[in-house]
Amino acid sequence: MSPATTIKDLPVYEYPKQTEAQLDWANLEALDISKLDQPGGKKALATQVLNFIDKNGFFYVTGHGFLNEQITRQYALAQEFFHLPLEEKTKYLANTAAGDFRGYKAKAAGANAGRDNDERYNIPKFTPEHERPHPQLILDHFEEIKDFSLHIHNKILLPLLRLFAYVLEIDEEYFVNRHRYDAEGLEYLRYMKYHPDPKDLWAIGHTDYNTLTFLFHQPVAGLQVQTKEGWRYVRSNPDSIIVNVADALEFLSGGYLKSTVHRVVRPPKDQAEKPRLSLIYFARPEAAIKLEPVRSPLLERLGLQKEIEEGLSSVTAEEWARARIAKDHRFRAGLVKTRETEIIAGVHQKYYD
């Protein structure tokens, strides 16, 4: 199958109303990355990062270059995808048992329904290794989705990686050179739909296993971040992308950039009956990159320079991600009763209520 030349019109996507509930919101910093090209902008943003990054790995990005219409088009695509018949969607199932998230994951049914109430469709990088069948809906908008994904990688991810390298006082291309788009590696755009569910906890507290996660504006409340003061809701603002640091970047930065614990809870009463649609991009290091900490003058000066964990010395980014995906699959599919904490090579992962 190949991308179609004629694009079918999509219904216009309209955001749900913001909740009127009084919630405990997290106080997050916003990095305006458009300032990186301005005189003194990089230094000012680095100062911002130094002031918050050891306290919270969640932050906002503004000045990202996307128009609202480009984001709502992706939401329209996501909405249309989830409206497809189940028998059509299941033609493109992801092999999560083997640690592969490419394609579709249905919500759980039967005895396991209480563990998993979301649907997902993951669209990997637009490189030869990831050529695979897609529903016609996706093929009809293939170039549009590709442009959206490439903008995130090239115009948002890479500038942030250079900024973090600048903060750590290392070669500004150090992280960038471990995230080359054309190199083998599973980076992907996700369309996700949480279905209304009476239980309070929709996704248990966890960290992500990639580099950075980009979550686009969605007014249905439910995302929470673990702070020193406890769980706090993450407010979604129309002009911002919510970004969180994930496992791979914590490992690569020697623990300085912390993978942040977050969860999804049932929305407030005025939104509880609505599905929660999400548009997410998961940036990930190249498949063969070892998860060893960088040697950083900043970390040396602060006495925070870490050596690589013994178990991680032989683990690649792909092996870490595949192991976490496969362990997650085992729990969601009911193959194990509790989440497995040892991921690979003696390295453990914590889970939270």
Automatic annotation (TrEMBL):
Every Fe2OG dioxygenase domain range: 185-285
GO annotation terms (biological process): small molecule biosynthetic process
Pfam families in alphabetical order: 2OG-FeII_Oxy (PF03171), DIOX_N (PF14226)
Keywords: Iron, Metal-binding, Oxidoreductase
Gene3D superfamilies hit by this protein: B-lactam Antibiotic, Isopenicillin N Synthase, Chain
Molecular-function annotations in GO: metal ion binding; oxidoreductase activity
SUPFAM superfamilies hit by this protein: Clavaminate synthase-like (SSF51197)
Family assignment from sequence similarity: Belongs to the iron/ascorbate-dependent oxidoreductase family.
Protein's recorded name: Fe2OG dioxygenase domain-containing protein
Lineage: Eukaryota, Fungi, Dikarya, Ascomycota, Pezizomycotina
